[in-house]
């Protein structure tokens, strides 16, 4: 019997510059995508033929045209008959996250990342939004063939359009009570995130952040994690590593200098945190950026 961790796909989808990749199958032979899972979300377009799909140990028979959404962590497989056509877009949901917190981040993007809401399993031919989804999807496929930043920006905007369409059509599956109105909480979290943005190069204490909201440190820690979906320390490290990534790609400054300017006075700790978030070391990151230019 295979354990879930043994089924995790080892393929990297996209690259550092843009974590999105497109795939295509168009052949007169049967094909099999074996049971696997990945952290990325996946949108599959069944263009022609019949497909047998297994998602989280439930089986479905799908007749094209249809779209299938694979949420992050879903165990899935696909078997097609002969003369079938399908394409897929695989992307990391984190690419949609906003550095500056707002209502969209609070109500839609973060709940998607945290699986409090999920994409619908299927959009079938009987669904009235299938044509609109197809139009957006084809734009994603077209622009993803290019490696220009403008193309990346367009692809990202099309994914937001897709999410907006699903949201307006009430197609998302809700797994938690995501409130529509909570401006007070959003204002509080924006105050803290703004503070972090302006002070990431300095020492940031829990006490200082708690004082901004008039809370004791223990309550603040629970409050921040509930609203932001991560601890304040995790968020600070993410901001610092993103700033370090910019400096690594845009300047020739020494790695030690970059670490110090991003709030790390210990180079070993900086490298450890960078690798945890980017999955490679700072020097490897810089080398990959140079090769991609």
Automatic annotation (TrEMBL):
Pfam families: AraC_binding (PF02311), HTH_18 (PF12833). Residues 190-288 form the HTH araC/xylS-type domain. PROSITE patterns: HTH_ARAC_FAMILY_2. Keywords: DNA-binding, Transcription, Transcription regulation. One of its GO terms (molecular function) is DNA-binding transcription factor activity. InterPro entries: AraC-bd, Homeodomain-like_sf, HTH-like, HTH_AraC, RmlC-like_jellyroll, Tscrpt_reg_AraC-type_HTH. This is AraC family transcriptional regulator.
